[in-house]
Amino acid sequence: MTRFTSHTVLITGGTGGLGESHVRAYHAEGANVVIGSSARGLSRATALAAELGDRALAVRLDVTAEQDWTAAVSAAEQTFGKLTILVNNAGVQNAATPVEATDPAVWERTFAVNVTGQFLGIRAVTPALRRAGGGSIVTIGSTMAYGGTALYASYVASKWALRGLTRSAALELGRDGIRVNAIHPGVISTKLIHEPAEPGGQPIADFYDPAPFAIPRLGQPADVTAALLYLTSAEASFATGTELVLDGGLLLGPALPAA
């Protein structure tokens, strides 16, 4: 398929479980892909770009660093001529901790990546999307943005904030031909879910049993990627400010047994 042949997409956190799925899918559909990665994952991003070939570029991108955003946007335009899509995928999870025991540094780091990082991304790419004649931005949130979750106040609060940022940006940029939407995944089978946020901690998967869900399984990265491709395609040209929840029915409550 070639839905994205004329597009260049910048994906943050491009080597994670979700990020790599997105990178591979956009590339398979004809897009130029710019794989953003922190310094820790840059070697993996470089290897992934080499594997994919000429239409892939790895860039160092600490989403909390304004200068990294400037450099990434510049690299995308210089290499591929334009930038048309931003996938604000990078995010961090705090370890399971009560509010009263949460280190303010953890709170600040969570907001720096999950909120400020996405704000800086929208701010940095907007002029480039205007130069391209329009484009699309998708923020990756969480179903935790629709309620409270004990022991994860930092993460929950950051994802609630992201909903407001997404909606405000959609209102500001619509007349420039720039659509801004959000995907809020539920429990997706990635390292973020199956590995603890810190050594000795409990992974999020320990707190969720998908058996009561209407769709009784964990989500897969491909589920999120498919929704992302839709939202950034011409097929979704009338969608902006949309919040697409992908959770197998988690937020709905327990489903009746199949019988």
What's this, in brief?
With 259 residues, the protein is an alpha/beta fold. Helices cover 39% and strands 14% of the residues.
Which CATH C-level class is it?
A: Alpha Beta
Rounded mean pLDDT score:
94
Unreliable segments of 5+ consecutive residues: none
Number of DSSP-assigned strands: 7
Count of helical regions: 7
Task: Tell me the structural class.
Answer: alpha/beta
SSE run: EHEHEHEHEHEHHE
Biggest sheet overview: 7 strands, parallel
Q: What is the helix content?
A: 25-40%
For the record, the CATH architecture stands as 3-Layer(aba) Sandwich
- The largest beta-sheet arranges its strands as 3-2-1-4-5-6-7
CATH homologous superfamily classification: NAD(P)-binding Rossmann-like Domain
What is the gyration radius calculated from CA atoms? 18 Å
- Please indicate the percent range of residues in DSSP E strands (runs of 2 or more): 5-15%
